Give the backbone structure.
Amino acid sequence: MRRLFVIHESPWSERARWALDHHGLDYNTVGHLPLLGEWQLRRLLGRQKERITVPVLAADGSAYGDSWEIALYADRTGAREKLVPSSLEGEVRHWNQVADGGMGGVRPRVLARMLENPKSLDAQAPPFVPTWARALLRPTARLVVRHLQRKYQTRSDGIGTNGMQLRSALDTLREGLKGNKRYLLGQFTYADIAMATLLQGVLPVSDLYLRLPPAIRDVWTEESVARDYADLIAWRDDLYERHRKAS
């Protein structure tokens, strides 16, 4: 059975799940614990010194180390319409890079807010930890968040450079959808998935598709940006309704 290592709320993990689900490929989901679980991913990927991130897919004797590689694997293995058609690969890759650039403006804010929100730290505990014991693990959760800040060299500057980085990506999306387009490239592709999941860092999608604890939803939400880009939120929600099964 395929194993998909994820951080549940991560937009990159959602991209990978969506690609596999689009093709109806079965897999077991494994929740990744940052810092603690990296040794296992290094063993799977054969990377001892490179930075390790999730999602990671272990399938058919191989390991795939990011959501783009996983989407290409899903296209090769599945039988449904390709998410990265060969004729559009360059354009899809471009939109994937735009989404990654926008996420560069989201991650610093999310990590900084987690350090300020004890309940969001509690939500990082593994599922088997009882609710009453989660507060006892907050020092460990803070250690993990600070590790992620160092790993990605993030610095939160509120609505400064980080906010501009996100808004620039959203402006690019708005321009790409001009003319009331349903899809960025005339058909449903991984470009739409990448940009739709970027909006997770503005206003997370409904719990119908991705259930989040309230504290996690709070740290991922940026209300002022959500108001300014309500049209893109509506586009994302429509895309989910038509192309994503309820969880």
In short: DSSP finds 13 helices and four strands in the chain. Strands lie at 3-6, 28-31, 56-59, 62-64. Residues 3-77 form a domain with the Glutaredoxin fold (CATH 3.40.30.10). The first helix runs from residue 11 to 22.
